[in-house]
């Protein structure tokens, strides 16, 4: 049996490095969001965690990775819109420790979600 060519060895090693970095990204960015207090930073860290998952999926299942990327992007846009509404409702503050009175605005969010759901379907 012949040894692998230098190019195939390079491709294999870069795939392993990508997979290892993606796993590290998932396990650092995801739990790191639990210790943040800014709403936008929490959403950004969850996006980073999902990008690690997408890059792992891309190695074996590129179509599934693209589907996950596009659905993630669509729902992340909706999440950022609602986060912007929450930030605006609490006097332009991103600190989640100040969101104890968010129940006042929750009905507005429910109506917005219902409206978006009706538009989608």
Automatic annotation (TrEMBL):
Any one annotated GO CC term: membrane
UniProt KW Transmembrane keyword: yes
Membrane topology: Multi-pass membrane protein
Gene Ontology molecular functions: NADH dehydrogenase (ubiquinone) activity; NADH dehydrogenase activity
Domain NADH:quinone oxidoreductase/Mrp antiporter transmembrane intervals: 15-107
Known catalytic reactions: a ubiquinone + NADH + 5 H(+)(in) = a ubiquinol + NAD(+) + 4 H(+)(out)
TM helices/strands, residue ranges: 6-30, 42-67, 73-91, 98-120
Subcellular location: Membrane
Major localization listed first in the record, in broad terms: membrane
EC numbers for this chain: 7.1.1.2
GO BP terms, alphabetized: ATP synthesis coupled electron transport; electron transport coupled proton transport
Keyword NADP: no
Keywords: Membrane, Transmembrane, Transmembrane helix
Top-level EC class as recorded in UniProt: translocase
Pfam entry (one): Proton_antipo_M
PANTHER family associated with the record: NADH-UBIQUINONE OXIDOREDUCTASE CHAIN 5 (PTHR42829:SF2)
Biological role: Core subunit of the mitochondrial membrane respiratory chain NADH dehydrogenase (Complex I) that is believed to belong to the minimal assembly required for catalysis. Complex I functions in the transfer of electrons from NADH to the respiratory chain. The immediate electron acceptor for the enzyme is believed to be ubiquinone.
Name of the protein in question: NADH:ubiquinone reductase (H(+)-translocating)
Organism field: Rhynocoris fuscipes
């Amino acid at each position: 049996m012949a040894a692998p060519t230098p190019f195939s060895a390079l491709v294999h090693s870069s795939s392993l490095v990508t997979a290892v970095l993606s796993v590290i990204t998932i396990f650092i960015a995801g739990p790191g969001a639990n210790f943040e207090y800014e709403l936008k930073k929490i959403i950004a860290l969850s996006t980073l965690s999902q990008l690690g998952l997408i890059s792992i999926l891309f190695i074996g299942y590129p179509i599934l990775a693209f589907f996950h990327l596009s659905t993630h992007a669509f729902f992340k846009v909706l999440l950022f819109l609602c986060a912007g509404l929450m930030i605006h409702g609490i006097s332009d503050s991103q600190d989640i420790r100040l969101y104890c009175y968010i129940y006042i605005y929750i009905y507005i969010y429910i109506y917005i979600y219902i409206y978006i759901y009706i538009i989608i379907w």
